[in-house]
Automatic annotation (TrEMBL):
It comes from the Bacteria. Transmembrane segments: none annotated. This is Transcriptional regulator. SUPFAM superfamilies: lambda repressor-like DNA-binding domains. Residues 9-62 form the HTH cro/C1-type domain. InterPro entries: Cro/C1-type_HTH (IPR001387), Lambda_DNA-bd_dom_sf (IPR010982).
Length: 79
């Protein structure tokens, strides 16, 4: 599943990251984050994958648009 610009913005809100902090965590440019979140460009799949992995490492879970709309939430801690 790919992430949407809205999910990216929401995930940043959950973890309290700025666009610059997300870029640093994902190893991409701040401009790429800004353009994606603004809907000005569609990043390559590899870029979206590193963004997603950065959020998942911080505890974010992406929810598929299974009839109720796409979303994000914190993962339950592993026991």
């Amino acid at each position: 599943m790919s992430i949407t610009p809205a999910q990216c913005r929401a995930a940043r809100g959950l973890v309290g990251w700025t666009q610059q902090q997300l870029a640093e965590q994902a190893g991409i440019g701040t401009v790429a984050v800004h353009q994606f979140e603004a809907g000005a460009s569609q990043p390559r799949r590899a870029t979206l994958n590193v963004v997603r992995r950065a959020f998942e490492a911080a505890g974010v879970e992406f929810i598929d648009p299974n009839g109720g709309g796409a979303g994000v939430r914190f993962r339950e801690p592993s026991q």
